[in-house]
Amino acid sequence: VQLQACGGGLVQPGGSLRLSCAASGSIFSINAMGWYRRAPGKERELVARISSGGSSTYYADSVKGRFTISRDNAKSTLYLQMNSLKPEDTAVYYCNTLRGWIVLGAWGQGTLVTVSS
To answer: Is 37 in contact with 91 (CB distance < 8 Å)?
Structure first.
């Protein structure tokens, strides 16, 4: 499965962005998916995870209540709705497939989100 994240950009604090991750290949719907981010000078971290069917989600404490992960298996697309963005959300965001909590795929280029006034 090849993954392409997009939708990043420059946004002011308090603003919103919606990231998308398009997957090629026929196995999208059988895997859990995750959004990760890597802030400057920090390790990559899991931001949100969604089960294969979409019924179960997980969020890092830092984004809980502000971000929403969703997926459209018919379109092989993963989403991350980000609201009430903060400067500390500035990072390159990546998507990946998961088996359980284990990353399966190679990391793509990601999409840069910059939160700044």
So the answer is: yes
Is 80 exceeded by the pLDDT of residue 73? Answer: yes
Cα 71 to Cα 53: distance, rounded to the nearest angstrom: 8
* Residue 26, both tokens: 């026929």
- Lookup: tokens for 84: 């009430």
List Cα–Cα distances, 34 to 11, 14, 52, 67, 117, in angstroms: 22, 23, 10, 13, 28
Nearest C-alpha neighbor of 59 from the set 34, 31, 22 = 34
pLDDT tens digits, 25-35: 667 888 999 99
Given a contact cutoff of 8 angstroms between Cβ atoms, the answer to whether 33 and 12 are in contact is: no
Judged against a pLDDT cut of 70, whether residue 50 lies above it is answered with: yes
Dist. CA 91–CA 99, nearest whole Å: 24
Instruction: Measure the CA–CA gap between 95 and 23, rounded to whole angstroms.
Output: 10
